[in-house]
Amino acid sequence: MSDQFPTYRAQMEYVCLGCGARHPIDELLYTCPSCGGVFLLEDTTFDKLKEHGGAYWRNLFDSRAATRNTALRGVFRFYELMAPVLEQEDILYLGEGNTPVVDGAPELQKKLNASFAFKNDGQNPSASFKDRGMACAYSYLRALVRKHGWDEVLTICASTGDTSAAAALYGAYVGHPIKTAVLLPQGKVTPQQLSQPLGSGATVLEVPGVFDDCMKVVEHLAEHYRVALLNSKNSWRILGQESYAYEVAQWFNWDLAGKVLFVPVGNAGNITAVMSGLLKMRRLGIISDLPRLFGVQSEHADPVWRYYSKPKAERVYNPVTVRPSVAQAAMIGNPVSFPRVKALVDAYEAAGGEFGVVQVTEQAIMDATILANRHGHIVCTQGGECLAGLLKAREEGRVAAGEKAVLDSTAHALKFAGFQNMYFTDTFPPEYGVAPDASLANRPSLVVDAAEKARLSAEEFTRAAAKAVAERLELAGK
Ligand code: F0G
């Protein structure tokens, strides 16, 4: 039963959030041909899923957790809720999804007087949550390739480093007829992130500026050339990323009452997907309570916070000019998915859910990142941003000490090792506004230098090095 690929097939349509127009999914559309608005994909037969109660879906998804069918092993465990138009043969699986929820180290929770767990989305194949959406977008692309018999498809994306890593990885795995190109803001992705599309063999192109500049270029390309856009403007990405919400619910045994989710916001695709997934589960009775949901933004890139920090009647959306941020992957001044956030927040609130945005300082992000990792976590700076967001929300009285927070650590700590290094060596350029806590600095120390090693025999070297280590560690003899 759990290995069997589902027979349910939906009718899906692109729905424009600008003018409400609907478009068929037989071609890859990014924006509404009528008004330029962004889309969400809607299953117009969704009500059929309601013929089963919540318990049916919970049991089905639980039984699939043990499947050996790779088409259902990753994010498509939740096939019926995501993209139930894809055939088994088109589904791509590189081990994405099913990432661990790791409880905050007891010492750390106590120290911070907060209750939380990290969901380590950095434990995805390309070391970020982007793989969830990429598995779905590429599966749909494979379906199109099969249908049309295309012999060359060029994919492109703008990126702060993680979308490009994921796009290049999945593209390289699929191979012919897919070719991948990525457009990066020069010097604004980390060396580790840059190494990823290079290693996957993608064409890596750079422009001066920030992500928002790159996004405009790829939007122009998608409008005027035959190229498949893989940014989250592509709504198939959003569907795949909904799996994050399904996994959180499943982990907590489908009970999200009293939980608070924190998600870092950049281009706002992820928070869109999380809300959309939570709403679908609520509509089907898979969960009975919507968790409280907080977006987190750095004060150096905070257009969504600015919007939601105002009373409803005074809200006006304005893009911001970003400043350098340690949460560099989310350093975006004009999030493409902002209209989706607005629409979904309205739906979330109408369904009884609570949504808010927290703004945090660069210093708080960096301190929280270092602190978490010194307690055995593997959070990226965006994961640290979520912890900083929780602490800020606690300070502001928006979250109680006993409320359990689930913090989205969207990428692996290793991708952002450079910021840790700047913290340890106190070398942040002033624009970041980060003054490290010197007591946390950590660096390697050499116990025997090369000249000394050269002077010594192999045995003498071992003894000298062991003696130096023992002295450093103040080891007692036995
Ligand atoms: N965290 C990480 C590690 C990211 O890579 C991103 C976005 C975000 C958070 C913000 O998520 O954009 O969905 O609101 N990175 C994109 C990229 C923009 O190009 O890799 P979002």
Automatic annotation (TrEMBL):
Task: Tell me a Gene Ontology molecular-function term this record carries.
Answer: threonine synthase activity
Q: Which UniProt keywords apply?
A: Amino-acid biosynthesis, Lyase, Pyridoxal phosphate, Threonine biosynthesis
Q: Name one GO biological process term.
A: L-threonine catabolic process
Q: Which cofactor does it need?
A: pyridoxal 5'-phosphate
Per the record, what are the reactions this protein catalyses?
Answer: O-phospho-L-homoserine + H2O = L-threonine + phosphate
- Look up keyword Lyase and say if it applies: yes
Q: Which residues form the Tryptophan synthase beta chain-like PALP domain?
A: 94-406
Q: Quick one: which pathway?
A: Amino-acid biosynthesis; L-threonine biosynthesis; L-threonine from L-aspartate: step 5/5
- E.C. number(s) listed in UniProt: 4.2.3.1
Read off the CDD domains from this record.
Thr-synth_1
Has keyword Electron transport?
Answer: no
Source domain of life: Bacteria
Sites bearing N6-(pyridoxal phosphate)lysine, chain numbering: 130
UniProt family annotation: Belongs to the threonine synthase family.
Q: Mind telling me what this protein is named?
A: Threonine synthase
Q: What is the lineage of its organism?
A: Bacteria, Pseudomonadati, Thermodesulfobacteriota, Desulfovibrionia, Desulfovibrionales
